[in-house]
Design brief:
The complex is a heterodimer of chains A (about 140) and B (about 800). Chain A is of the alpha/beta class and about 140 residues long. Chain A has helices at about 10-20, 30-45, 65-75, 95-100, 115-125, and strands at about 5, 25-30, 50-55, 85-90, 105-110. Chain A has a five-stranded parallel β-sheet, with helices on both faces. By secondary structure, chain B is an alpha/beta fold. Chain B folds into six domains: about 15-145, Response regulator (Rossmann fold), CATH 3.40.50.2300; about 165-270, Beta-Lactamase, CATH 3.30.450; about 275-355, Helix Hairpins; about 365-520, 2-Layer Sandwich (Heat Shock Protein 90), CATH 3.30.565; about 535-680, 3-Layer(aba) Sandwich (Rossmann fold); about 700-790, Four Helix Bundle (Hemerythrin (Met), subunit A). The chains are: A alpha/beta (about 140), B alpha/beta (about 800).
């Protein structure tokens, strides 16, 4: 599984990078604009991301705008399988998550991050334990 | 001498239709070469070795083309050309020059030649040049013919202009504006005296001239376009320049087409006006630059003053937290208070100068006026409680759920009025109210009112109250502090929002401030961000069924507040006034959640919780989530509550946002999540055990996260400080939000809470609060650093 972590905060990037490492390659982006660029590049190379963890509230292009753009890119290129997208948000900002669901995200993680919850959310998206995946 | 040897000239060739050429060159080889080549191309050729010979030839027979060398012994080619131009104007002339005579050739063209050839050349080139020269001559003579016809037209129009009355002519002669009658090509058919002065030196008449030839070259194209447009029947204006000895004169022409097709143009000299406009623009940009410099200076100064002041206030709060003698404490408190007033003053002055300089731009975003009013009430609640005042807030149901405008500035005005009301009221009520005055074409006029039962304002002072730097009198400043700018700023903000502000007051009974603002109705869908964190957005959460919540609270007002908040969040409620009533209620029905006051009379909240959890109380669900409500200052309550089996806690007064968070956490999260109990006993500075649980016991990762956080945070705080100092409150809010996420991740709960409040205060544009919170956040970071050091790697 190939993952793109989009977070403007360093601790969040490190947490998700470490937690997702057992599933395979993890790339990071620090804002929505970078995320969309990375996503488009990966698509163009024919190695699209399987999972995107996307912070909702970032300066500039925020997570919701990036999500919209990512879904648009997929539609445009007629990707066979859509990337799973987990939105991340700080406790208390749930209203954003509801908006995100309308924009077709697959689940959400609330900060502070919890590895168990991450595993739960991955399972909901149909991603099984890392042992079954190629490293 | 008139004839060259026969191979040099040819008799009339069969294809002589191309034209008759006279070739003049002193070199035989060139003559021969040209004759041969041109004859093959259908020309009839004669050759001459000198200009004199050529003249003889010309006298003898007609030619179409003269092809002559420039440098020849005796008479030159140029002289020959002048002769031909004069006596045989129907001939096309092509000059041949040496390679280095390029300039000579150009001069020749200007003197009237129709083409030139640079030696050496090939016959093919010569033929092409000759052809082009013939064409050029044809075009020129057509143009000449046209000039002739133009002159005829002028004559005709002069006759037709005779129809102008003497009176009309007299007027035209007197007016300063230029009057021109033109044909569509710009030929001047008639002009008045002012028009004659358009050109230098002035002409008796412009009639017969082409207007396009009289204007500066830069204006020609615009003029021709203008004339073409007008000739098409569209009247219009055009600025054109006429050359003057001292520069250019700019005229504005207004033209229209007359019924018979001619154009009438009235011109006015606008040179002076243009010069004034330019100097005005220069003066304006200079003034703007000075203004910008002033604003920058103010922003810098404010930063320079705030930074050390933040240090003073922060350090004083640390000092106040330490052991002090009563006298020292009093002195430190004075320092603290003085620092805070100074900060508030600086903030006011900055806002005021921004508005005065028209630097203040209002936002236009969708917002929920109820949430705005609720936030203001929350922010006022602390001071009101401290003074024992009753604070209430009402918003009429007719006020739309979403408005479009600047919620931050609206908050600022409400806070300002609200703070004054609380400040000047010793006992009694402070009330906030919002009503809809009118709605027309999607614009709503909303009226906000703040009433107090304070000292009131003497009638004589009412008029000047909204002027800057006005306070009732010196004794007020001494008693209540403040810059005297608050109401002036409020008035300006309200006026910027298209409304007005007024007050009525009775001395000794209280004051009533009200203002209106004109706002658009919000668009249908709120942007996600605009609603972030507000109770309103939580209502979007689809509860599978409305959660049923039991409120246990002895104080009637607090109970009512909790019940109303819960209803707003989509819950159904029941209430109990004491411990035994709560136990009875839980034994009778199932609840999804219990909100429990800690200081209940008799059986307190902790004991009630212990009995419920132990199962001895006969509750239908002993594991029902219980959330404590504790007074803000009671730190110990929190730990005791968690130890007693409570799931979470809220500080009083209960805020809608915090309540929404807890509800979402306890009722929205899946049952299999990490037990909330894991947070029990955690240190609020650094919840290490909680962090360890979240990384599934990976100590190295936990340590790395904390280290990264500690390394990253000073920069983040500095950036936050800069954003606040620069007044970039939106950015400050974003930065606080980022810090909030990071703090949450490492379990820095105290920092998390402070960052949350900073984010809230940024949205509320509450400068004073930001300046208070920032030093606290810095202090908390240092405490977290110490806590991490004592945690000290693997334990």
């Amino acid at each position: 599984m190939k993952t793109l972590v989009v977070e403007d905060d360093l601790t969040s990037r490190i947490f998700l990078q470490e937690a997702l490492a057992p599933w395979g390659e993890v790339h990071v982006a620090v804002d929505g604009r970078e995320a969309v660029l990375a996503f488009a590049r990966a698509q163009a190379r024919g190695e699209p991301y399987d999972l995107v963890c996307l912070d909702i509230l970032m300066p500039g292009t925020d997570g919701l705008a990036a999500l919209k753009e990512i879904r648009r890119l997929e539609e445009e290129t007629g990707s066979a399988s859509a990337a799973k997208v987990l939105m991340t948000t700080v406790l208390g900002d749930k209203g954003n998550v509801m908006t995100a669901f309308r924009e077709q995200c697959d689940g959400y993680l609330i900060k502070p991050f919890d590895q168990r919850k991450l595993v739960e959310q991955l399972a909901k998206c149909g991603v099984t334990a890392p042992s079954a995946q190629t490293r | 001498m008139a004839h060259e040897p026969e191979d040099d000239s040819t008799p009339d060739a069969p294809g002589g239709a191309a034209g008759r050429v006279l070739i003049v060159d002193d070199e035989l080889s060139i003559r021969r070469h040209l004759v041969r080549g041109l004859v093959r191309r259908g020309y009839v050729c004669r050759a001459a070795e000198s200009a004199a010979a050529a003249r003889d030839q010309l006298a003898e027979e007609p030619f179409d083309i003269l092809l002559t060398d420039v440098r020849m012994p005796g008479e030159s080619g140029s002289e020959l050309m002048r002769h031909v131009l004069q006596h045989h104007p129907e001939m096309a002339i092509v000059l041949m020059t040496g390679h280095d005579d390029n300039e000579v050739a150009r001069e020749a063209i200007e003197a009237g030649a129709h083409g030139y050839l640079l030696k050496p050349f090939e016959v093919r080139q010569a033929a092409v040049t000759i052809e082009a020269a013939v064409e050029r001559r044809r075009v020129l003579s057509a143009l000449l013919a046209e000039r002739g016809s133009l002159a005829a037209e002028v004559e005709r129009s002069e006759r037709s202009l005779a129809v102008l009355s003497e009176q009309q002519r007299a007027v035209l002669a007197l007016i300063e504006d230029t009057f021109l009658l033109l044909d569509p090509r710009g030929l001047v058919l008639d002009a008045n005296a002012a028009a004659a002065r358009l050109v230098v030196p002035p002409r008796d008449t412009l009639v017969g001239g082409i207007l396009g030839d009289l204007v500066c070259p830069g204006s020609r194209e615009a003029l021709l376009r203008h004339l073409a447009t007008v000739a098409n029947g569209e009247p219009g204006r055009c600025e054109v320049c006429f050359p003057r000895p001292d520069g250019e004169a700019i005229h504005e022409l207004s033209s229209t087409r007359l019924p018979e097709g001619r154009l009438l143009a009235i011109g006015r000299n606008i040179t002076e006006r243009k010069r004034l406009e330019e100097s005005l623009a220069v003066a304006k940009s200079a003034a703007e630059a000075a203004d910008r410099a002033k604003s920058e200076f103010l922003a810098n100064m404010s930063h320079e003053i705030r930074t050390p002041l933040n240090g003073v206030i922060g350090m004083t709060s640390l000092l106040l937290a330490s052991e002090l003698t009563p006298a020292q404490r009093k002195q430190a408190e004075v320092v603290q208070r003085s620092g805070k007033s100074l900060l508030a003053l600086i903030n006011d002055i900055l806002d005021f100068s921004k508005i005065e300089a028209h630097k203040l731009e209002l936002e236009s975003i969708d917002f929920d006026p109820r949430a705005t009013l609720a936030e203001v009430t929350e922010l006022l609640a602390l001071d009101a409680r401290e003074k024992g005042l009753e604070l209430s807030c009402a918003i009429a149901p007719t006020v739309p759920a979403r408005l479009r405008g600047d919620p931050g500035r609206l908050r600022q005005v409400l806070l300002n009025l609200g703070k004054n009301a609380v400040k000047f009221t010793a006992a009694g009520h402070v009330e906030l109210e919002a009503t809809l005055v009118s709605e027309r074409d999607g614009r709503c006029e909303v009226r906000f009112e703040v009433r107090d039962e304070g000292i009131g304002i003497p009638a004589a002072k009412l008029a000047s109250l909204f002027s800057p730097f006005t306070q009732l009198d010196g004794s007020f400043t001494r008693r209540f502090g403040g810059s005297g700018l608050g109401l002036a700023i409020s008035r300006q903000l309200v006026e910027l929002m298209g409304g007005r502000i007024e007050l009525t007051s009775t001395e000794g009974e209280g004051s009533r401030f009200w203002f209106t603002v004109s706002l658009e109705r919000g668009r249908e869908e709120l942007e996600g961000r605009a609603s972030a964190g507000h109770a309103r957005s939580l209502r979007l959460l689809d509860w599978p069924r409305a959660p049923h919540v039991l409120v246990v609270e002895d104080d009637e007002t607090s109970r009512l507040v909790a019940v109303e908040l819960l209803k707003m969040l989509g819950c159904t409620t029941a209430a109990a006034a004491d411990g035994p009533a709560a136990i009875e209620a839980l034994a009778a029905a199932r609840y999804d959640l219990v909100l429990m006051d800690c200081q209940l009379p008799g059986l307190d909240g902790f004991e009630v919780t212990r009995r419920i959890r132990a199962g001895s109380a006969g509750a239908l669900d002993p594991q029902v989530p219980i959330v404590a409500m504790t007074a803000r200052a009671m730190r110990g309550d929190r730990a005791e509550g968690l130890a007693a089996g409570m799931n979470d806690y809220l500080t009083k007064p209960v805020e809608s946002e915090a309540l929404a968070e807890v509800l979402a956490q306890l009722l929205g999260a899946s049952a299999s999540g990490a037990p909330r109990g894991a947070r029990a006993g955690q240190e609020s500075v650094l919840a290490w055990d909680d962090l360890l649980a979240r990384v599934m016991g990976n100590r190295a990762l936990a340590q790395r996260l904390v280290d990264t956080f500690l390394a990253d945070m000073p920069g983040q705080l500095e950036a936050l400080r800069c954003a606040i100092a620069a007044g970039a409150l939106r950015e400050a809010g974003e930065r606080a939000h980022r810090i909030r996420g990071a703090a949450a991740n490492v379990g820095g709960n105290a920092m998390l809470e402070l960052a949350r409040r900073i984010e809230l205060a940024s949205t509320a544009a509450d400068r004073g609060r930001l300046d208070e919170l920032l030093p606290e956040l810095e202090t908390e970071l240092e405490r977290l650093r110490e806590a991490a050091a004592s945690q000290g790697g693997p334990t």
